[in-house]
Design brief:
Layout lengths: L5 E2 L6 H23 L3 E9 L2 E8 L1 H4 L6 H13 L10 E6 L3 H10 L3 E6 L1 H8 L9 H7 L3 E4 L3 H13 L10
Parallel strand pairs: 4-5, 5-6
Antiparallel strand pairs: 1-6, 2-3, 2-4
Helix pairs in contact: 1-7, 3-4, 5-7
The structure holds zinc ion.
């Protein structure tokens, strides 16, 4: 069954979408091993065309750092690898197993990433895990204004299963106490 794609582009590019489905499926399949080694349940990868530039999972718990989300880790690694703070001229693709949270939307915007593809939407992440993804008014529109293309809700069922397993195995749902 094909879930409905969420996007801010007028016309879906089938070739790009099919490639995203393939990469996000790979990331979802790799994610349980990262979780086993103490990572949080989110994985991200940055590609330049067919070339992998960086791949990182969430390391909030192992690093004792609340901003070490997968997106921020993978952007930092790509900028370090390419020796630039501005990835825009490289026209890179960011693939994420779930929709970016409010913090990562800012990080993606400042990074110069041009294309974003994500798996499980935030509402579903919150429902399954109890993580707080923050508030994000019109982020798809705001990204569009800045020339950043977004495709989401890709291979969602597979991603939901990974998150359900994370919760079932009693891993930490880290967030500030209230
Ligand atoms: Zn985040």
């Amino acid at each position: 069954m094909d879930t409905k794609i969420i996007t801010n582009v007028g016309k879906i590019d089938t070739e790009q979408l099919n490639r995203a489905k393939q990469i996000i499926t790979e990331l979802q399949n790799e994610l349980p091993e990262y979780i086993e080694h103490g990572h949080g349940p989110f994985l991200a990868a940055i590609y330049s065309g067919p070339y992998l530039i960086s791949k990182r999972a969430n390391t909030v718990v192992m690093d004792n750092c609340s901003n070490h989300h997968a997106e921020i880790n993978v952007i930092r690694a790509a900028q370090s690898e390419l020796k630039t703070y501005d990835l825009a001229p490289k026209n890179l693709d960011l693939y994420i197993t779930a929709e970016p949270c409010m913090m990562c939307i800012g990080a993606i915007m400042w990074s110069g990433i041009k294309n974003v593809y994500y798996g499980v939407p935030s509402k579903k992440v919150e429902k399954i895990t109890g993580f707080d993804e923050g508030f994000k008014p019109n982020w798809l529109e705001e990204f569009k204004k800045r020339g950043i293309k977004v495709y989401g809700n890709i291979e969602t069922e597979l991603g939901e299963d990974v998150l359900k397993q994370y919760v079932k195995s009693k891993h930490v749902v880290y967030k500030p106490s209230r």
